[in-house]
């Protein structure tokens, strides 16, 4: 079945040649309330929730890092660390703990995460960058540390990973404002984060000068854009192999807050239609849902297409194809319309598991390689199924989901 999925992705790429990668949003922690702010950089509009951390404990403290595997965002105010679901009112995924391996007066200044290696990078105010292996979703084990080679009187103030090219970006900031030695952004191998291969100055939002402050970084691999914040603004630049950057865009934060960390969060999916059951199937129309497990982001090995709260002891098939879910479609003898367009690929049968009633589930893994060619690929998927019971044959159909593969 894995081979079938890989074959489907290869065929989908051919069928969708010429697509333009969509821009995901940035997400960052702010310094006052604090808020976890998600910002659409095409409109600068924001959505917010309140994470389970306090406000920034010192100048340049704080950071955010998104994990596409469970759709959670790591957040720190410098002293405390947690993982929250920004799509669900900042619900805790990992409980709030003290930032590991740090003691006052030092504090955390940046976060970044690589889904493929399951490594969380944390920078500290003493300019040491730590690499942690994440296990069990929340457990952190220190595997490496190094001292960033920044100028005297600079502090490391933000991190971001480019997982396609295996790079770590970090910024350093003068402790006191300086017109001579302003903030610098560095790129280095993730395996040797304190051995920079490039150094960059970042243009300001107006493009007339350079940023005089950097408090967070985020990297979007689909378009190769590095997002840099000075607190009230976010500037997008595209680094090149010659250690130069090209200005792309900028947004201002439309609230009386300042970003103290930044990262990229993939685009949301769009559900279409309603679930239904008939005949010998348990009455699960109100509970059954087709959902995404993880974000559809390149480099996410844990992405899957799931069915939850479905009739148990049944067989399900996943329909998937290029394009968005249709508003209407044929029923072909099922209880509801099939909304995946064209002639979809059919994967299954997938058993919904033992039990009774609506305890059934199904999962179709769709691991996404760190391949920018997948960026912008729009897909739709939907589950259908058959039930065999004493009450006779029955059918079920889930909602359809439209989603676009982006970066994180």
Set down the secondary structure blueprint.
Blueprint: H1 2-15, E1 25-29, E2 36-39, E3 46-49, E4 63-67, E5 72-76, E6 80-85, E7 91-98, E8 108-114, E9 119-124, E10 128-135, E11 139-147, E12 154-162, E13 167-174, E14 184-189, E15 198-200, E16 216-220, E17 225-229, E18 233-239, E19 245-252, E20 263-265, E21 270-272, E22 276-277, E23 289-293, E24 304-310, E25 314-322, E26 345-351, E27 360-365, E28 378-389, E29 392-404
Antiparallel strand pairs: 1-2, 1-20, 2-3, 4-5, 5-6, 6-7, 8-9, 9-10, 10-11, 12-13, 13-14, 14-15, 16-17, 17-18, 18-19, 21-29, 22-29, 23-24, 24-27, 25-26, 25-28, 28-29
In words, what does this structure look like?
By secondary structure, the protein is mainly beta. It folds into two domains: 16-265, TolB, C-terminal domain (Neuraminidase), CATH 2.120.10; 270-404, S-adenosyl-L-methionine-dependent methyltransferases, CATH 2.20.130. It is built from one helix and 29 strands. Strands 21, 22, 25, 26, 28 and 29 form a six-stranded antiparallel β-sheet that branches. The protein has a four-stranded antiparallel β-sheet with strand order 3-2-1-20, with no helix packed on it. A four-stranded antiparallel β-sheet has the order 4-5-6-7, with no helix packed on it. The longest helix is centred in the first third of the chain and has 14 residues, at 2-15.
């Amino acid at each position: 079945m894995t081979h079938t999925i890989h074959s489907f992705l290869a065929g989908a790429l051919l069928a969708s040649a010429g697509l333009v990668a969509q821009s995901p949003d940035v997400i960052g922690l702010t310094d006052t309330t604090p808020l976890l702010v998600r910002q659409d950089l095409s409109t600068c509009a924001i959505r917010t929730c309140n994470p389970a951390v306090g406000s920034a404990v010192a100048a340049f403290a704080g950071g955010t890092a998104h994990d596409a595997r469970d759709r959670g965002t790591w957040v720190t105010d410098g002293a405390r660390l947690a993982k929250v679901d920004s799509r669900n009112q900042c619900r805790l995924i990992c409980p709030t703990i003290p930032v590991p391996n740090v003691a006052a007066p030092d504090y955390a200044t940046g976060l970044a995460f690589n889904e493929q290696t399951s490594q969380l990078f944390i920078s500290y105010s003493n300019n040491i960058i730590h690499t942690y292996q994440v296990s069990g979703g929340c457990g952190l084990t220190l595997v490496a540390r190094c001292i960033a080679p920044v100028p005297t009187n600079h502090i490391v103030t933000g991190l971001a990973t480019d997982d396609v090219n295996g790079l770590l970006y970090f910024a350093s900031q003068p402790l006191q404002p300086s017109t001579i030695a302003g903030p610098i952004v560095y790129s280095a191998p993730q395996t040797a984060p304190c051995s920079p291969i490039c150094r960059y100055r970042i243009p300001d939002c107006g493009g007339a000068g350079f940023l005089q402050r950097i408090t967070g970084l985020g990297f979007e691999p689909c378009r190769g854009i590095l997002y840099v914040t000075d607190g009230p603004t976010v500037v997008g630049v595209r680094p090149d192999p010659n250690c130069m950057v090209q200005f792309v865009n900028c947004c201002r934060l439309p609230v009386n807050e300042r970003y103290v960390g930044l990262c990229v969060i993939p685009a949301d999916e769009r559900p279409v239609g309603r679930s239904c059951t008939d005949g010998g199937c348990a009455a699960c129309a109100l509970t059954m849902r087709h959902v995404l497990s993880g974000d559809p982001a390149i480099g996410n090995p844990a992405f899957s297409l799931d069915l939850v709260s479905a009739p148990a002891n049944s067989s399900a098939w996943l329909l998937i194809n290029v394009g968005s879910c249709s508003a209407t479609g044929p029923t072909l003898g099922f209880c509801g319309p099939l909304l995946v367009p064209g002639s979809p690929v059919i994967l299954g049968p997938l058993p919904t598991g033992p039990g009774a009633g609506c305890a059934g589930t199904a999962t179709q893994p769709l691991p996404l390689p760190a391949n920018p060619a997948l960026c912008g690929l729009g897909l739709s998927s939907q589950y259908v199924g058959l039930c065999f019971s004493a009450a006779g044959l029955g059918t079920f159909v889930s909602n359809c989901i439209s989603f676009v593969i982006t970066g994180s």
